[in-house]
Specification:
The chain is built from 9 helices and 11 strands. It is an alpha/beta fold. The chain has one domain: Spore Coat Polysaccharide Biosynthesis Protein SpsA, Chain A, CATH 3.90.550. Strand 2 and strand 3 form a beta hairpin. The radius of gyration is 17 Å and the shape is globular.
Length: 262
Amino acid sequence: MSDTAEQHQKLEAIILAAGKGTRMQSDLPKVCHKVGGRPMVCAVVDACLEAGCERVVVVVGYKQELVREALESYGDKVEFAVQHEQLGTGHAVMSAVDAFPLTERAATDVFVLCGDGPLIRSSTLDTMLELHRTKNAAATLATSTIEDPSGYGRIVRDGDGRFERIVEQKNASEGELGINEVNPSYYCMSALAMFEALKQVNRNELTGEYYITDVFELMLKRGLPVEVIDAVPAEDILSINTLEHLAHVDAIYRERRTVTPN
């Protein structure tokens, strides 16, 4: 963790791991598919712990017993929250609200990450956290600029280059679809500001889901500071939606471990 991080502020994480992954041609939860010989969610938990998280709350749902089993070796460093319905990322994070007592939220920063991104680096989390705390932000996003942004939410900025909002691909206009700065779902937020904003998130009219990405625009409207840093290497955000994707990411992960052992 960065030397500039305020030591009195707690650091914890929420990892979203409730989905099935219907294109994986398997009954396994997506995050239980192996990368580097271990369930891919383990790599995300590792990055959080290496970045200084005192606790990681994993949101489970589909075949949750398998995800719990995959993370059993972490002991009390990992806790679980249950998303009973698949109603989007905002709903998933809100499913963890009871794990964060109201009296502690103001003194807690939270990483919010996806469990199917095993190429995540703790150094990227360090960079995001340092900016978040240096700027005393309510929320900080780490973005990535990639050649083919297909499938990712786009980072919309105003004429002066300031962050305005994230627009999901399904909701993007033709012009917004041409944006190459994307959202790889690396967030750091004040637990208090995050859960307050989540209460205001409405269901998306097109998908019927609650998006965690809506909280940033809501925070800005309330005058809260939201920081953005283009800090995620393009390779790190490779999606795993098929067995072919899994094999590709596994090869990259193993190569990294060969070049730079843990």
